[in-house]
């Protein structure tokens, strides 16, 4: 969200405090905070933070809240991105800003597509929650539909490039040496997959607002059919096209990967299963939270994407069916958690009103994807 060749914190050429970039909105009323207090806190902690601060919000996404911090105007303006957890209670271990800061303050050295983080604040009194500030990258985030600049979905070549970059960058990320990234002690790789299954099952239980037996049955199936994991790698844990940005002039060139709050070390096929879970084929009905235009002409089919990852990474995909089911189950729980916040009055965002039914649809799809 800084041009890849711009200095960290520096605004894009021509940026103006009075002409907001197209990827931001005015801050939603229930997601505002005391901007003057934030400005006072950050003054002197970031290059360029002495100027007047304007805050706007990135309107996409459904969990962590992300804001654009714009200091000053003209060629000396500076821009940063602030990230904080969503409103209301959050699941233990999720939306961990300190963890994301730790990862992004180091990972950029070994994996340049990760934006660099500059400052973490654990004092919730400043804006109402812990937060961190990172560099802004400029690129195109694909949320559902393909933009007109890339053919609006009608250009098979552009569509194929988009699908290939998702798989290729994931395989490249899994090849990063954790020690070289300063993250060799991150997480607990031993027993990772079993803990993940149990953890997501517990999230379902906490976010349940009414009984749904199929979800309960899927929990049991996932625990009873655990595969043996391959050697551990760094994991993103929420790999999707809409957590990436591509170059405005090339849909096949990634310029940034976002949302690292669940990054750890563990089973790399869990990442693959996460992205393939929302990689719908023509005979499937996409969920209400479908971040990838996988039905566009030229876009790789799910089996093609899996095969491309296997060839690029050298990993066996013999038990990929399990990871696909688990990835779909996780996406269902994510929707359920969002819906539960809305149902309990912890957010007023009307986009979330139908996500309870969306979660049920994904639980049904997870069951149908069992081999």
| Distance separating the two termini | 39 Å
Share in β-strands = 5-15%
Count of helical segments? 9
Number of domains: 2
If you compute it from the alpha carbons, what radius of gyration comes out, rounded to the nearest whole angstrom? 20 Å
- The level 1 CATH classification of the largest domain is Alpha Beta
- Could you describe the largest sheet, including whether it forms a barrel? 6 strands, antiparallel
Low-confidence stretches: 1-18
Structural category is: alpha+beta
General shape: globular
The quaternary organization reads as single chain
Strand order of the main beta sheet, please?
1-2-3-4-6-5
Looking at the structure, the CATH topology of the largest domain is Aminoglycoside 3'-phosphotransferase, Chain: A, domain 2
What is the chain-wise order of helices and strands?
EHEEEHEEHHHEEEEHHHH
Q: Mind telling me the CATH superfamily name of the largest domain?
A: Aminoglycoside phosphotransferase (APH), C-terminal lobe
Please outline what is shown here.
This protein has 9 helices and 10 strands. The protein has helices at 35-42, 97-104, 156-174, 192-207, 213-224, 268-277, 302-313, 320-343, 355-368, and strands at 24-25, 53-58, 65-71, 78-84, 117-121, 131-135, 233-235, 244-247, 250-257, 264-266.
Helix and strand topology:
Elements (H helix, E strand, L loop, with lengths): L23 E2 L9 H8 L10 E6 L6 E7 L6 E7 L12 H8 L12 E5 L9 E5 L20 H19 L17 H16 L5 H12 L8 E3 L8 E4 L2 E8 L6 E3 L1 H10 L24 H12 L6 H24 L11 H14 L3
Antiparallel strand pairs: 1-2, 2-3, 3-4, 4-6, 5-6, 7-10, 8-9
């Amino acid at each position: 969200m800084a041009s890849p060749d711009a200095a960290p914190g520096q605004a894009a050429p021509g940026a103006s405090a009075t002409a907001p970039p197209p990827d931001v909105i005015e801050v939603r009323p229930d997601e505002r905070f005391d901007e003057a207090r934030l400005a006072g806190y950050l003054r002197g902690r970031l290059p360029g933070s002495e100027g007047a601060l304007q805050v706007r919000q990135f309107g996409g996404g459904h969990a962590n809240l992300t804001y654009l911090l714009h200091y000053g105007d003209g060629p000396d303006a500076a821009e940063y991105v602030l990230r904080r957890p969503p409103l209301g209670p959050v699941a233990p271990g999720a939306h961990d800003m300190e963890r994301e800061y730790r990862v992004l303050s180091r990972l950029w050295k070994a994996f340049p597509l990760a934006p660099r983080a500059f400052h973490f604040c654990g004092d919730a009194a400043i804006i109402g929650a812990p937060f961190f500030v990172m560099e802004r990258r400029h690129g195109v985030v694909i949320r559902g539909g393909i933009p007109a600049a890339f053919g609006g979905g009608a250009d098979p070549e552009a569509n194929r490039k988009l699908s290939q970059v998702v798989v290729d960058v994931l395989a490249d990320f899994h090849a990063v040496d954790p020690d070289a990234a300063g993250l060799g002690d991150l997480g607990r790789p031993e027993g990772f997959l079993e803990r993940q299954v149990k953890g997501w099952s517990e999230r379902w239980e906490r976010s349940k607002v009414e009984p749904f037996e199929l979800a309960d049955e899927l929990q049991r199936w996932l625990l009873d059919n655990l595969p043996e994991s391959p050697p551990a790698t760094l994991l993103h844990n929420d790999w999707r096209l809409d957590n990436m940005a591509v170059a405005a002039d090339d849909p096949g060139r990634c310029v940034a990967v976002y949302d690292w709050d669940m990054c750890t070390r563990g089973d790399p096929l869990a990442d693959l299963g996460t992205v393939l879970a929302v990689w719908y084929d023509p005979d499937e009905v996409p969920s209400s939270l479908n971040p990838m235009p996988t039905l566009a002409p030229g876009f790789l089919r799910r089996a093609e994407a899996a095969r491309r990852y296997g060839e690029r990474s050298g990993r066996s995909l013999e038990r990929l069916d399990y990871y696909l089911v688990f990835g779909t189950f996780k996406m269902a729980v994510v929707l359920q958690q969002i819906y539960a916040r809305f149902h309990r009055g912890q957010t007023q965002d009307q986009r979330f009103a139908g996500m309870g039914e969306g979660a049920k649809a994904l639980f049904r799809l997870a069951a149908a994807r069992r081999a």
